[in-house]
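Case study 2.
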Amino acid sequence: MEKYLYQRNTSKNSDFVMWMAFPGIYSFSMSSLGYLWMFKTLDELEGINIERICSDTEKTVYPKPDLMGFSFSFDMDFLTIFSMLEKYGIPLKSKDRDIIVFAGGPVVSANPEPYRDFFDFFIIGDGEDVNIKAVEICKNATNKQEALKLLSEVDGIYVPVYPQNVKKLTKKLTECIYTPIISDNAFFKDTFILEMSRGCANRCGFCLASYLNLPLRCVPYEELLNTIELGLSNTNKIALLGAQISAHPHFNDVCKYIYDKIQEGQNIEMSVSSLRVDAITPDVVKTFVAAGQKNTTLAIEAGSERLRKVINKNLSEEQIFNAVKIARDNGLKGLKFYGMIGLPTETYEDLEAIINLAKRLKQENKGFDISFGFSSFVPKANTPFQWFGRVNTKSLEEKSNFLKKELHKLGITAHISSIKWDYWQAVLSRGDATLCDFILEVYRQGGKLGAFKAAAKKYNIDTDYFACSDWNFEQKLPWDFIDINPGKEFLKQENQRLKGFEVAINKA
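Prediction:
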């Protein structure tokens, strides 16, 4: 059952049809804040019959759309996108179809080039406002060619058939984005998600979520409280979203606001995605516990202070241990630490530092659940580490096995992402337009790991060039046409500054 938190416009008096597509199953789509908010803003427009389509949609209200938009959040989403297009008999390549198909989201905002043959246009950056403008252009144009020409003249829209520099859009957060449709079949059942902030001022060198969304923007406090009240009037489950929610100047006030309501007898369940170590305070933890949260995730990224400095994660061991003590003393049952292997300049000493840190945490916090999760470094476009390649797969798998084995000895659970899949994610992340036929072949061959290898062989693509090569500052990057702030020169300076920590430490 779905509950709409806005007034739907159900009498549109129009024959223009748009499908808003999510490359995943229904339950996931109903927990995707960006996707649902985009749908809401378009659903409120006059003259547009809009329908949500997911990978498991069995029957559509409208048999064929004039316009189809995809949310594109993860590199491997292209496999599901192609499958959905074929399901409805829509040609995969833009040159072969009459309807217009576009995409927005972090993957294509950072680097749309591997996908340029398949989408008629891309929304680059924050799409809340330009999304509406783009749909209106498509609705009012007399044909596809006219629509694409007009779209190419709009800031924040990249049209591959009219290539030119494109300005990445950054929106001021004057309003709070929230879950506009609550569903008991959502992955996070009956949960009202609200965005407290966008971006992250910490700027870890590898982090796309930080650099793609700079500057850090925070929703005004009164707006937050009004949105929380809207959520609590419709459900007792709320979730706070943001890459750095604890940097919100009123984060502690929001926690106190929720805590006071619980103390007054209101039944509220609250969760957050993750927290910085330095955001763990007794009052914050007490709020989490009162709201039913038993554990949370802390991102420490690396085991040694040396490597944390190199990646711009300025965090001391003392802060980590203090955070654990506060969490334990104030009622949390456990913490999951998130880290990354294969970071630039990493050595086995850094991995051993993770083991030593885990050992000490375990010894000093008996009965408290300590676990770890790791992914491997994937170079991302428009970050200071975009010039660094990955360590080869064999070395990373050895490191992964070492960590799992040593942490298992300590009785600590460790989940590590697939090194092989992370490799192909890196290929796509730094890919260019030469990969278009490659990814189509991957899809045709079933989308498994073997399909990637076979497709690379068929098209004679040196995938190590994209995934593992260190690139120099002088070479042209596939995504250089995107005008993003901070720009390429700043990213170069950050790259050199962070590498300088390794030099300074080694000299010392």
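The CA atoms of residues 19 and 68 lie 5 Å apart.
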